[in-house]
Amino acid sequence: MTWMETERAALVETFRRADPDAPTLCEGWTVRHLLAHLVQREHHPLRQAADVLARPRPGRERFLGRLVERARTPAGYAALLETFAAGMSAWNPVGWAGDRAHHVEYVIHHEDVRRGRGLVEPRVLPPDQVRAVWAELAPLARLGYLRSPVGVVQAVPGGPRRVVKRAADAVVVVGDPVELALHAAGRVDAADVDVVGRPQTVERFLRWSGPAEVARDGVDVS
């Protein structure tokens, strides 16, 4: 079983227990919206692309909205969840990239559901899965911090570190790999990280990475 499959199974159970109308960390999206997004991403990628290109307000997407409406009843929600739980068909090219394209995505969206009502105690993941999150995080981090006004280094306490943006002045974002993934994906308020560096450099970074920079969520872990 791949980490992508392991995390999907865990996320399915969280979706089963969650209130479909509860908020998530994704602005404008409830748990129902987030489940519909995952199904659309894996089964209707052209419709997802059309929604992204239209740039609607979150929660007002045309094609995503159709899936959400079909899932308004308990039976409709259960059916949508079963579609996600079944995974992608073998012919779907979206799934061919495996863990590298989907594992961190699922981890982040799992926390979007869990922490939507406020910071929740972090899950304890198997050490090998945590190492996998770290190994797969680099592309997301480079994209997430692309427009940072200062350099950015990610570091795990007592563990590895990587430069994700080079510059003369840099901050170090310190946290466990899941927290680093959340921060890089724009879930700044929910991520349990420390930002260290020269005071003026940290201030510039925090001004950029704060709530006003919510557009970084478009880094697509969506």
Automatic annotation (TrEMBL):
Entry's Gene Ontology molecular function annotations: metal ion binding
Coiled-coil region(s): none
Organism (species): Georgenia thermotolerans
Chain ranges of the Mycothiol-dependent maleylpyruvate isomerase metal-binding domain: 8-88
Protein name: TIGR03085 family protein
Family matches, as Pfam families: MDMPI_N
Signal peptide: none
Listed transmembrane segments: none
